[in-house]
Records
---
Amino acid sequence: MRTTLDTEWAIAWLQAAADAVAEHRVELSELDRAIGDGDHGENLDRGFSAIAAKLREEAPATPGAAFKLAAMTLMSKVGGAAGPLYGTAFLRAATAVGEATELDPVLLAGALTAARDGVVLRGKAEPGDKTMVDAWTPAVDAAKSAVAAGADVTSVLAAAAAAAEAGATATDPLTARKGRASYLGERSAGHRDPGAASSALILRAAADTA
Amino acid sequence: MKKLINDPKSVVDESVQGFGLAHADLVSVNPDPLFVTRSGAPVPGKVGLLSGGGSGHEPLHAGYVGIGMLDAAVPGAVFTSPTPDQILPATLAVDSGAGVVHIVKNYTGDVLNFEMAAELAEAEGVQVRTVLVNDDVAVEDSLYTAGRRGVGGTVLVEKIAGAAAERGDGLDAVTEIGRRVNANVRTMGVALAACTVPHAGVPSFELADNEVEIGIGIHGEPGRHRIAMENADSITERLLAPVLADLQLQSGEKVLLFVNGMGGTPLSELYIVYRHAAAVLAEAGLVIERSLVGNYITALEMQGCSISVLRLDDELTALWDAPVNTAALRWGI
């Protein structure tokens, strides 16, 4: 049972996320081609590859520093809506953990909550709008429940990842009300939201490295 | 698909480099991060005017950098918003201390990236105002969509707000003029054939030989509906009807009529559209005070056009007539 997560985990997570995004790059762009403009996988891969490259050059001193590096890189490399949304998520997580070198379950759930709140604030989407919020909100709820039940950090992230995956799947029948997919109206139903799908991948990477 | 390019990855960089060389008297190009500024910017005491967005809409936006229009343009990848690390230094480069107005087309990515850049610029002590352009009547403006898109009206906002800044209006006044133009302009477009994004290599959508897409955006996104091909006069009427209905123009009002090419339609056809649009407006008792016809906001080589109608008042007309000297619009100089 792991009681805390450290900087080494934060770096491992970001690298695993970069691998996962690269592996699913075409799949994410296919999802986006159906209801958006077909570049989500390319854009995110460009951003996460840049994060991985920076992490190979210099190791951040704290989890917060690692999150901030991810945030600044995503904002400058991704473009589109995904860059500011993921950038804001990581920036808020960095602020939430501050200078801490070890993240306990409460701090970890706090970071996830702050990340989700940042996405909501930036994108102004609500649950059910068929956006990445539909993966993040169930993930945050599951993480908080796990903390309340006394779970360790590994179990908190496992619960968050599973809930994010279920949340992403649950976007399939929804009609998009935010982002470029909303121009399609009801024609957006029957397709998974690409941002929710990539959010689930990134949170799964967090759980797998814990 | 044949394209006159060297490498899909270098399309934007090489195109902007060429633009900078061709118009060295008007602009400077900052290569990394990529943005274009008016020669001699910042102009002392003048409000800075900055716009940007995905590339592929040329001459928008870099073609409008110069005297009487934009101080800076920030090009993103083709059809992808620029990032805050481009927008921020461009904003700082054109701030004379009088503040900077960002003209942003209403797309989620553009809005978010400009919003972040504006926050960062404010943190560095630069006052930033935003004029959001959302003139496309093809999209329902409701809580259930990202809202109307910014299309043809963007050119008119940039020209008229640019003239206001040039005559010395303050930050709030320039912002108000920009918003007033946006509030009084509506646009509707049609596509006869799709465009191909260089790195995608395949057309963004398929249209049969006998089909047109009514209500097209400037990225090949879907429009309102697809219909069988009709003649120019019928399509012109289909585009104008929702524009006029939305603007609720009264007989006797003065307007600017703007027929814009999407990149792949010859000017001769645009004038055929203009001809009938002018007749329809005249029949509605409207007075066409000013006009603009040509390829001013494009979607690569997409075939089609858009029609914009702007309700004019005396001040907007005077600002439209004010001198402008840019690569793509030039008069009165």
Note: The CA atoms of residues 196 and 203 of chain B lie 4 Å apart.
---
Amino acid sequence: MTGAEMVVKTLEKNGVKVVFGYPGAANAPIIDKLSFSSIKHILTRNEQGAAHMASGYARVTKQAGVCTATSGPGATNLITGIATAYMDSIPMIALTGQVTTKLIGKDAFQEVDITGATLPFTKHSYLIKDGLEIPKVVNEAFHIANTGRPGPVLIDFPMDILKAEFDYPDEDEDISIKGYKLIGKANESQVKKVAEAIKGAKKPVILAGGGIVISDATNELRKFVKETDIPVVSTMMGIGTIPTDSPRYYGMIGSHGVKRANMIFNRADLVIVMGSRLGDRTVANIKGLEEGNKLIHIDLDPAEIGKNVQPYIPVVGDIKDVLEQLTPLIKGYKAASSWIEEADELRSRFTHEPFSDDNGFVNPKYFLKVLSEKTNSDVYLSTEVGQNQIWCANNFTFTSPRSLLTSGGFGTMGYGLPAAIGASVAVNGEKPVIAVMGDGSFQMDLPEMGTMAQWDIPVKMVLFQNHRLGMVHEHQYLLYKSNYQAVTIEGKPDFEMLAKAYGIESGTVTENSGVSEAIDKMMASGDSYLLIVEVSPFEPTGDALNEATLPKKEDN
Amino acid sequence: MERYTLSVLVENNPGVLSRVVGLFSRRGFNIHSLSVGTTQDPHISRITIEVNGDAQTVEQVSKQLSKIMEVIKIKTLRDSEIVKRGLALVKVKVSPKTRSEVIEITTVFRANIVDISSNTLTAEITGHDRKIGAFLEMLEPYGIEEIARTGMTALERGTNTLKIDK
């Protein structure tokens, strides 16, 4: 069996059903052998699209998405997608072709040291030196990508090895990686300390992070919150762990969070962080968190604890396990009603019905509210990066984990459309997949509409069109004295005509009064659809300009 | 800021050193010295890294290193817990007049003379970096032509070892 056949056979053994990729000389043997397998290969328009699709696929299926690219530029085009997956702890396998073994290091045609280049943002990587190790390495790669704190793993295959003949081992070797140990049960005495701290707290708050999604601990969290009544705020990656319309959820915190959530977070005397790295966009005032014995940090990755903020009580463990241990320990505890009242008062004071009169533009916040209602939130929604992302995070009603697909850590423009394609492949028509985009980010991976069209992958595209790079535009308004530079998108195409060129239906809505009908039409279409939503260039990212905790000058 | 020594057992694979060193540079940690060599098990190497930093930083370094697949075990050690040695080769200018003085210094420091020519002398010294530093300082006035120094390597004192769990 050839090396490439061994790759494909091991992929099949690992349950892979689809590979997103782009062929070239070096990975051609894999593409060739995929065609004789049960695995579908979806040709994308750029390798970056393949990586994002694998990422979107993984976010929905909870299993590593697989992408492939050839050596050199093919491999480097994957990089943004790999880094995006790494920052959001998304399991992914990237299979790259490499030049022939004896040419490695000779600056051969289309040669690049891709394992070296991706070292900082892969969970692990391999360069295959011997075809016999292929089954072991591929099995290990899936194990590493999917377990513990998930992440991307890259395997680089020199093309001579892919073409050479080897004997596939009769039995799989047991996976044993000396330096990779999964975290066991959380330390009981630490969990007890957490329980005691909660019982002693007057104003506790839970910060729900993406770790809850990864750990599949949504039900445990919801049960915990139901029993304790502790208010919950979330990071962007934690959105949907608690339904965003539930009475104890108060919104996303951080520089683009909502004021009510930030205020509740700041007023709390005990902050229980679950599965968040407490990054710079989430918390600015680190000192405030470190003072007063108020921070409990629960994370599966020991390196996250104390990296950005020193906690009062650290707990290393899987959130699900920690919640299962913790819930019985605080039986009978309820958060003080005065604290709930205070939180509710902040919510009612800082939550406004979105403006919905006609004024020549569509209010994206109103649009997203209507979209939630019309779809009953029973969709996967991907975002790009920029205003569209924040509008979605703060205004769409997310009721289940994994329903929001967004590049939280890396902030990758061009992510949303291919991620939606990957998600749509994963759900296979069972749920609608909506990609919300801006007219800047849409154009970053716009050719992937061709992938949608070629493979009949339905995606509802919502394009918030303001003819600007809206978030930078707002930034320049606030911090650069309205010196708008490099933010107006000139020479943009007529997007409706462009959709038509790909055979995709489209529509445009320019007034709030047209939103309902426009959404109905989009959702009724059995196929992909592009809905252009005309929004004002001065539509703020936050509720109002003074509501979000906007970056300060010294932050830049 | 204190000096810590990280003793790191790694799989003896190509590329493992770049994974370890790369992590230091991209996370903004500084390496004071580094040395690598195989252990009694040829599949396992020991990387000894000296770092300067506060306890929290060093703990973070150690946690980040633990995440590298090929890193099997790490121990953070204080100077009082270990014997630590480095090696330096130093080529000093000598004349017939100064040669015997230089030889005398090497004897005092228990260094070895490993090469000699009509106007140079090369000495080898092992020891703690303070000892090596003092030796080099003594040779300075004669004119040091070249120095080659290794990083420190270390073992714990007493019966403690950095064992790999089977």
Note: Confidence is low (pLDDT under 50) at residues 545-556 of chain A.
